[in-house]
Amino acid sequence: MAKKRLAGGDVEALIEGLSILGTGGGGSPQWGRAILEKDLSEGREIIIIDPEDIADDVLVVSGGIMGSVKTLEKMNIGQLLEQWESSFELLEATRVMEKHLGRKIDYVVPFEVGGLNTPVILSLAARMGISTINGDALGRSAPETQMTSFIGHGISLTPMPLVDAVGNTIIVAEQFNSTFADEIGRWMITRGGGMGANNHYPMSGSQVKAAVIPHTITKAMEIGQRILSARREGRDPVSAVAKALNGWELFRGKVATIQGEDKAGFYITNVTMVGQDAFAGQEAKLVIKNETMALWIGRVLKAVFPDLVCMLEPQSGSGIMSVDIVSGKEMVLVGTPCHTRLRACLQTEAGAHAFGGARYGHPEIIYVPLEELRRKEIK
Asked: What is the Cα–Cα distance from 75 to 272, expressed in whole angstroms?
């Protein structure tokens, strides 16, 4: 059974890759780095295992921190990490899940790849003395709990225990609508300290193998290693990222306008950009709901969630968080198709509802694969 133990020298590359795949969200990379460094300094073992190496009958769960990135931004990471040594909401929610199911959990798997939300799952597993599955439910970050490959492959989001920052605990046992549990969670945390944690998607090993987006933690590390190498060798880090992603540059320019609001646990932003270099004279519009959702250049749709639009710093190639976008900021937008397993779930009723444009204010948008939109552009 192949396993990889995360070492201190892996952290920087992992965080760089996670921040890029986070597509503007997934939580603060600085926080993610602090969490991993804290765990390693405490002597905890952070171990990942490939999904194909687990038994079919094991119990796997997912979960994560819930809350607005704006709320987390106001908190002190050092103080929170010390608090987590005595009361870690994610661990508490996981213990509630074990009690509810009447069974010990064998592995955990990230809900998404992101600068904070992958490290918190790695930390959860380390604190429990178990391994983290090398994969996730998206291959990127997404703003809502039902936006996963799991739900489109018949894995139930519920039961979903929720623990908020002030100690309230509930379990959403079942849901009729795929968005109900997430909406309950958002309602709860906005009244319980602005953040909390959930545990969800209990599944077997065989279900994991059919539904997970595989090897995304090591993929993030590979992307990070390539970008760090490009910087050391004086090569263009943006080109290195695009190559590592098997993607391409969609737009390059400067932020002209930005309208954002913190609403019901999400940071929703409309951004316009004016083009630079090869894109001079053009204008782009991005809709962001914590993460990038849709991109237009001029009036032409160029990318639709869940395909990835990664926002990069032109000089360093690092991923840009949506909360760090300000007027005048230069960005390069690199696109890459999402995984085929994620696309397959869009064909299901639950997946179509969970990922639809109505979830980010554009019910008129119908998903078109990124490469098809590109072929139309080339023609």
From this structure: 29
H helix or E strand, kind and range, residue 263: strand 248-263
What are the distances in angstroms from CA 131 to CA 1, 27, 66, 309? 12, 22, 22, 30
Q: Which of 3, 51, 217 is nearest to 118 (CA)?
A: 217
Domains and CATH numbers, the chain: 3-214 (3.40.1610.10), 237-378 (2.40.390)
Prediction pTM value: 0.93
**Tokens linked to 289:** 């709901």
* Rounded Cα distance, 263 and 290, in Å: 11
Over its length of 379 residues, how does the chain's per-residue pLDDT go in tens digits?
578 999 999 999 999 999 999 999 998 899 999 999 999 999 999 999 999 999 999 999 999 988 655 666 677 888 889 989 998 999 999 999 999 999 999 999 999 999 999 999 999 999 999 999 999 999 999 988 889 999 889 999 999 999 998 889 999 999 887 778 888 988 888 887 778 899 999 999 999 999 999 999 999 999 999 999 999 999 999 999 999 999 999 999 999 999 987 655 566 789 999 999 999 999 999 999 989 999 999 999 999 999 999 999 999 999 999 989 999 999 999 999 999 999 999 999 888 988 999 888 888 999 999 999 998 765 4
